[in-house]
Specification:
The protein is α/β, with parallel strands linked by helices. The protein is built from 15 helices and twelve strands. Bound molecules: pyridoxal-5'-phosphate.
Length: about 425
């Protein structure tokens, strides 16, 4: 049986209905024998799943399959490799609810997707609205563009409690704005941006486009890009979808797509391009003006990085087969359990809002020095990370269980954390 069949058979044995620890341990954990063996060997409790997800055993076999094709088929391997690229686009389209599979363009980083959109806009110096809470890669790209005079950027700060407010972002969207860039989930705090639809509606009024960073949302929240109606979305697979680094994507809304051919100057058209964006790359036909393939295919670039489609296959298939809605429901139950375990041991957590649905899949513990706290946690056998608050201080230790994390592990982790992090500051929740 191949990877896809093995995964689907395992998920079928789970049956329908909410995920349970017993079912996952029996039917899904065996797909992760290699990484679970590491748990036993290291005695480490892994709670950094929001940072780097844990791979299925099949991922290594999938990469091997791509390599084997090269050895056995040489240049004929391209047929299978390009089929896998299409399968990758299809998996991402299903993951994010984009009905047009070709509107998904493989990228090797989220920043690459952002740059492709910035460079494709008709404005020579696009005027951008964004927040002070975007991930460092996005933040840095925008600062680099602004520094070289290639973009004007208006930054929306967070509130004193480190929350970003859709209304405040909305107010920054004035006539003349070309692009709005917002996270669906803010990486440092896990805040899920409510009322994002109001931002998109306001952007429409002034003919601005909206790019949503869905890195902490895709595979976490059951959502549909079609329904959201944004113009672009960026994300990647090394976290929740267990696809390792380099397997990222840019998804485009209908307003970013053209019927193909030579684009009109006032339409978005990618200049981060290459011969795979031509309608028939293998015809070797040249025209004086750039004639693009229609739709999302016109956003493809040059010779693609084949291995990324294979390395992410198993993780994406598992996520899709389990269902993002069931995964989200299970994650919320796990977070409630972990929070309770921590509170019982007098460790305070930050809850952005009493509504659990207002945050993504990790819990936060505020600390003064994130580096120091994480080192102490690691020494105690808890693998977590920390990020500074967008308000300046404190830092937040981020804790993210996943379907491999048992309640016993969460209770043990809470015990270890309580031994390391003194009862803190914080809005106790
Ligand atoms: C919100 C968000 N965006 C983007 C990224 C990754 O960006 P890039 O692929 O450009 O390194 C991350 C990584 O943690 C992230 O949390």
């Amino acid at each position: 049986m191949g990877t896809v069949e093995t995964i689907h058979a395992a998920v079928a044995r789970l049956g329908p209905g909410p995920l349970t620890e017993a079912g996952l341990v029996e039917h899904i954990h065996p797909l992760f024998a290699r990484v679970l063996e590491r748990n036993a060997r290291t005695n480490e409790i892994y709670l950094a799943n929001h940072s780097l997800g844990r791979p299925l055993d099949a991922s290594a076999d999938d990469v091997q399959e791509a390599m084997d094709l090269w050895y056995t088929d040489m240049d004929r391997a391209w047929d299978a490799w390009l089929c896998e690229r299409e399968a990758y686009r299809d998996r991402i389209a299903r993951l994010i609810g984009r009905s047009d599979r070709t509107a998904v363009v493989p990228k090797t980083s989220a920043a690459q997707g952002l740059r492709a959109v910035l460079n494709a806009l008709p404005a020579r110096v696009p005027h951008v609205v964004t927040t002070r809470g975007e991930f460092d890669s996005i933040d840095f790209v925008l600062k680099a563009y602004a520094h070289r005079g290639r973009a004007r950027v208006d930054w929306v700060p967070c509130d004193p409690d480190a929350r970003f407010d859709a209304e405040r972002i909305r107010q920054a969207i004035k006539p003349g704005i070309d692009l709005v860039i917002v996270s669906r989930v803010f990486f440092a705090t896990g805040q899920l941006l409510q009322n994002i639809d109001r931002i998109i509606a306001r952007a429409r009024e002034v003919n601005a486009r909206v790019l949503v960073d869905a890195y902490h949302a895709a595979g976490v929240l059951p959502e549909s890009m079609d329904a959201l109606g944004c113009d672009a979305m960026i994300g990647g697979n090394y976290k929740y979808t267990r696809g390792m680094a380099g397997a990222c994507w840019l998804a485009l809304g209908d307003r970013m797509l053209t019927p193909g051919g030579v684009p009109a100057v006032d339409c978005p058209a990618p200049v981060d391009t290459g011969w795979f964006a031509k309608a028939e790359p293998f015809a070797y036909h040249r025209t004086e003006l750039p004639e693009y393939a229609p739709g999302g295919d016109g956003w493809l670039e040059a010779t693609p990085p084949i291995l990324t489609y294979y390395q992410s296959r198993a993780g994406l298939e598992l996520t899709l087969a389990l269902g993002v809605d069931r995964l989200r429901d299970y994650a919320l139950r796990q977070l409630a359990f972990l929070r309770e375990q921590l509170h019982e041991r007098r460790v305070s957590t930050r809850l952005i809002n009493p509504e659990p649905a207002d945050h993504a899949n990790y819990l936060l513990i505020p600390v003064d020095d994130g580096h120091h706290a994480c080192k102490r946690l690691r020494d105690a056998g808890v693998n977590a990370d920390a990020r500074p608050s967008p308000a300046g201080s404190p830092w937040f230790v981020r804790l993210c269980p996943d379907i491999l994390t048992t309640e016993q592990e969460m209770a043990d982790a809470a015990e270890r954390i309580a031994g390391v992090l003194s009862p803190a500051r914080t809005e106790h929740s």
